[in-house]
Amino acid sequence: MTLGFVTTPRGIPADTFLAEELAHEDTVEMANLTSVQTGVPGTIFISTAMGAHGPRVKYFVQPGRTQPSFSVSVTDTPTVVANSLPARTVRQMSPQVIAWVSRNKDELLDFWNHGDTWTQPEVNEFIQRLQRV
């Protein structure tokens, strides 16, 4: 499947720009985590429940609402579920993002499901508990 300059493997839909996802949400708690926080080069976007899909994180080479990204499911077996980055970037970075999601699955699910009720200190504590790869 070809989308502009991006080629995605069969069966993986194009990742939606963050601007489009946020346009349909009333309240979303989110954070852009840096490589210092995750151990993964680039930026990992985490949020509370948003969109019609299940729990996921987005990986960006450069953060921004209109930047290409790939999404990884927050499940027992995390996988790339959407992509708008070049296939080479996904092959290089997805194993690291998947490892980070696996290591932090329970915390990420708690944030996805309940983070919209947390205070700022609780969100800060949550981010501090996340483990680097």
Structure description:
This protein is α+β, with helices and mostly antiparallel strands. Helix content is 36%, strand content 20%. A five-stranded antiparallel β-sheet has the order 3-4-5-6-7. The N terminus is likely disordered.
What is the straight-line distance between the termini? 31 Å
Low-confidence stretches: 1-7
Mean pLDDT comes to: 88
DSSP summary, beta strand count:
7
Helix and strand sequence: EEHEHEEEEHH
Task: Name the structural class.
Answer: alpha+beta
Report the sheet with the most strands, covering strand number, pairing sense and barrel closure.
5 strands, antiparallel
Beta-strand percentage?
A: 15-25%
The radius of gyration over CA amounts to 14 Å
Shape: globular
Helix amount:
25-40%
Lateral arrangement of strands in the main beta sheet = 3-4-5-6-7
The tally of helices reads 4
Topology record:
Elements: E1 2-3, E2 6-7, H1 18-23, E3 30-33, H2 35-38, E4 43-47, E5 56-60, E6 70-73, E7 80-83, H3 87-114, H4 120-129
Antiparallel strand pairs: 1-2, 3-4, 4-5, 5-6, 6-7
Short description, anyone?
With about 130 residues, this protein is an alpha+beta fold. It has four helices and seven strands; from the N terminus they run ββαβαββββαα.
